Amino acid sequence: MPIPDSPARPASYRTVLAVPEFRALLLAQTLATCGTVVVQTTLSVLVYARTGSALLASLAFALGFTPYLFGATLLSAVADRCPARDVLVVCQALSCAVAAAMALPGLPVPVLLALVLVLGVAAPVFQGARAAALPDLLPDGGYPLGRSLLRLVAQSTQVAGFAVGGLLLLAVPAAHALLASAAGFAGAAVLLRYGTRRRPARLGRGGSVARASLAGVRQVWAVPGLRPLLLLTWLPPALAVAPEALAAPYAAQLGAGPAGVALLLCAAPAGSVAGELLYGTLLSPATRARLLVPSAALIFVPLLGFVFRPGLLAATALLVVSGLGYPYAMALDQRTLEAAPAPLRGRALTLALAGLMAGQGLGFAAAGAVAEFLDPSLVVAGAGLLGPAVLLLCRGATRRSPVRAAPGPSTARFPNTRTP
């Protein structure tokens, strides 16, 4: 059960990091994220070296995101029907086995890509179970701050992971780099197994996991206060990736070269990290909740400046300011947790995270497709124009369906429920 939080000591980054189980979870994510990034980097290089195909090399990245909705739709019930620690450990052990299998010599490229799909199926189950477990091990009010720290670590670790992957490939063969990834996943599994406590599942077992997952998706979508929150989770990030998707062609237009691409790609994440720290340390939960929609709007307003085709430094500054709005997710995380009925918590959070990843993938593809016909700067400005319209629609839905405190388990509606 969550640890009661004293009114004199509201949740903060310090109190969240003081929880030993959360520190183990944070370190496990660091190892797992490094392992995932090294796998993606290594496979991309390996596939290109074998085939000479840029398309197949890019699939080593893309296929990791493709199964997110599949995993969330057919396997999300696992997050509610099994103890969270068991799910987390099994997912990391499976990732370890897959990475080790990739290191086997002479595997055909289609088999390698199929193994990437396996990693992608496990990812949303892991993330949903992790998100659903956080309220049980953090102080009251600590959930959005815990999610914020996980995002900060994930962003930083991704950058470090790409660097580590590149250095590994310079120093050792690809198979050894994949084995290093497998070791990272194994380390994450050990940390989760021995660094966190096993808590009972929120639901009893019985029946098909796929059928329960599909039913859970319908039940999640039927919760009136949850629908607009899911849309706020999915749609703004899908539009906000336009500058990242078009960084290379935009930098080419400016004659900035690879250094310009790197600068544009780093700008929004840098603003996001600064924003997370500012929101988490300076704003109260109530203030963050009031600023949810205005913060999300901050993502898009600077993008309107791209209609003037700004130079490299001006474009970078606009994207840094845009990144300051990304912490709107802190308030959104708390509201989503409150809106999700306890028996559906794992499935609701798995669906939210899977839709977020899938939406970003679609956003990348859509921005690239539109940029085939329009100037990249106009595509980015168009995303800045559509964003506030989407926020207004979701805000209207939120007002029509106010979020209420999440009800406890209901044995009439969820016959196999049991209280943790």
What would your notes on this structure say?
The protein contains 20 helices and no strands. It has 420 residues and is mostly helical. Helix 11 (227-240) packs antiparallel against helix 20 (376-400). Residues 1-8 and 400-420 have low confidence and may be disordered.
List the helices and strands and how they pair.
Elements: H1 13-17, H2 20-51, H3 54-62, H4 68-75, H5 78-81, H6 84-102, H7 109-137, H8 143-171, H9 174-195, H10 209-222, H11 227-240, H12 242-245, H13 247-254, H14 257-282, H15 285-290, H16 292-300, H17 312-323, H18 328-339, H19 345-370, H20 376-400
What shape does the CA trace take?
globular
| First-to-last CA distance | 8 Å
Helix content: over 70%
Note the main sheet.
Answer: none
What's the alpha carbon Rg, rounded to whole Å? 21 Å
Q: Please report the total strand number as a whole number.
A: 0
- Order of H and E elements: HHHHHHHHHHHHHHHHHHHH
| Mean pLDDT value | 79
What would the keywords be for this entry?
420 residues; mainly alpha; globular; disordered C terminus
Task: Please sum up the structure shown.
Helix content is 75%, strand content 0%.
